[in-house]
Amino acid sequence: MHLVDRSRPDPWVPADGPRQLMVSLWYPATAKKGTTARYVTPEESALILRGVPGGENHPPDTIAKTRTHARVGAPPSRRSLPLVVMSPGFTFPRATLTALGEDLDSRGYLVAAVEHTYESVATTFPDGRTTTCVVCRQQQTDELGARVAKVRVADISFVLDHLLKRAPLGLRIGKIAMVGHSMGGNSAAHTMAADQRVRVGVNLDGTFLPEAPTLTRPFMMFGTTTGHSPGGRDTSWDSAWPHLKGANQWLTVTGADHSSFTDPPSLTMRSSANRSASPPRPSPAPAQSKSPAPTWRPSSTATYATSTDPPQTSPKSYVIQGDSCSSRLVCQRRRG
């Protein structure tokens, strides 16, 4: 969806006029009708690869060849659905949350992933123009981070206004939750404080900036063991915990890094596996050659450790072995 918020100018490039956002929707469908939804556009793929080490060794449209499970315009299986709105990390396109979005919609949720224009490395609009990360050119300070969070709160509230009034395909929205990665997770907490319609929030490995607000509704902090265990490197989680007064949880994932909650690590592993299966070459493939399209494959050896104790106590944990992905773990914990 292409949405235009005519009540405010774009906060990063005011000369562009009203704030414009791209939003991807996933929902349970009755049949495999319609064309397969694209992962990213070729232009977005090229810009993403430009910032990836070794990306120059791939054709520019490589990431655009990633296969998804969604179909465009497929008939919904039912009209009334709970909504999960998703916010990606800073510089991350919304497409990097595709696996999580598809998993949640397969469990009966309407999912809306919001692209925060000029904060993403690449955003293509229906008119064909592709914007880049203008905010990345600014000095990265705490003050800028707080401003980014404020902009995202306004973006999410505008998207909720639109969906509640004019949801596509006759969909009716029930209860609302928000999940975000990195800056998106930080923004989930601040959105809950500003917008009472969001009843549940999840922060996937995001630093709280500014400090976390006081929340009385359920909120989950879900991060890496190295960075976000109680007493870990990111002290903002320890500071936030006393302010989370609802039915809250603090979980960590053993062996994960910051991007493990998104698609790129699995896409990278799959693409690397495809390359390693090919005969060795003395030089990089020529630009016109075709490399295998990366696909999403959940890991079959993931280990998850979780903790729900306050920071001042020693965490108790349990381990899940197998092909569980982060969204499944969240679902299991929520549904008890």
Q: Measured on Cα atoms, how large is the radius of gyration?
A: 20 Å
Q: What order do the helices and strands follow? A: EEHEHEEEHEHEEHHEHEEH
| Architecture per CATH nomenclature, i.e. the level-2 architecture | 3-Layer(aba) Sandwich
Main sheet strand line-up: 1-2-4-3-7-8-9-10
CATH topology-level name = Rossmann fold
GO molecular function: 1-alkyl-2-acetylglycerophosphocholine esterase activity
GO biological process, one term: lipid catabolic process
Organism: Acrocarpospora corrugata
Keywords: Hydrolase, Lipid degradation, Lipid metabolism
Question: Which key features would you list for this structure?
Answer:
single chain; 336 residues; alpha/beta; Rossmann fold; eight-stranded mixed β-sheet; two-stranded antiparallel ribbon; 8 helices; 21% strand; disordered C terminus
How would you describe this structure to a colleague?
- The protein has 336 residues and is of the alpha/beta class.
- It has one domain (2-248): 3-Layer(aba) Sandwich (Rossmann fold).
- 26% of the residues lie in helices and 21% in strands.
- It contains 8 helices and 12 strands.
- The strands form 3 sheets. Strands 1-2-4-3-7-8-9-10 form an 8-stranded mixed sheet.
- Helix 4 (183-194) links the parallel strand 7 and strand 8 (198-204).
- It is globular.
- It starts with a strand and ends with a helix.
- Residues 275-336 have low confidence and may be disordered.
- This is Alpha/beta hydrolase.
- Residues 255-269, 297-316 have a biased composition (Polar residues).
- Residues 255-324 are annotated as: Disordered.
- InterPro entries: AB_hydrolase_fold (IPR029058).
- One of its GO terms (biological process) is lipid catabolic process.
